């Protein structure tokens, strides 16, 4: 099912459908993260309202800020692929990943 199809259901505001769809995609992506470090980067840096810095995450895992940055990029790429798998190949992601 495509996001635009979710947004067209009768009786439910478009925003609610979009928000629900995004929450479902995020939850299903979270369930694919099996590495504890990836889970922590996802929760504490990528989706947190107050993200933990790359430096602080690096200190916690005894790696450089640059290494954490590489892991962040890998997780973002996995998330993009997950969104496309769930919402379809025509899903536009430019607004999400600038």
Overview of the molecule:
- The chain is mainly alpha-helical.
- It is built from five helices and no strands.
- The protein has helices at residues 3-6, 14-30, 36-46, 54-61, 65-87.
- The longest helix has 23 residues, at 65-87.
List keywords for this structure.
single chain; 98 residues; mainly alpha; 0% strand; elongated
Structural class, by secondary structure, is: mainly alpha
Major beta sheet summary: none
N-end to C-end Cα span: 25 Å
Number of helices: 5
Helical residue percent?
A: 55-70%
Assembly annotation = single chain
Given as residue ranges, the uncertain stretches (5+ residues, pLDDT < 50) are: none
Number of strands: 0
What proportion of the residues form beta strands (DSSP E)? under 5%
The 3D shape can be described as elongated
Mean pLDDT: 83
Radius of gyration from the alpha-carbon trace, in angstroms: 15 Å
Return the string of H and E elements. HHHHH
List the helices and strands and how they pair.
Layout: H1 3-6, H2 14-30, H3 36-46, H4 54-61, H5 65-87
Helix pairs in contact: 3-5, 4-5
């Amino acid at each position: 099912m495509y996001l635009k199809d979710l947004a067209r259901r009768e009786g439910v505001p478009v925003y609610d459908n979009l928000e629900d769809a995004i929450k479902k995609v995020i939850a299903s992506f979270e369930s694919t993260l099996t590495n504890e470090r990836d889970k922590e980067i996802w929760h504490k840096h990528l989706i947190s309202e107050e993200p933990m810095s790359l430096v602080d995450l690096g200190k916690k895992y005894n790696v450089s800020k640059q290494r954490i940055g590489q892991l962040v990029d890998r997780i973002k790429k996995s998330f993009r692929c997950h969104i496309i798998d769930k919402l379809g190949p025509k899903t536009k992601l430019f607004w999400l990943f600038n």
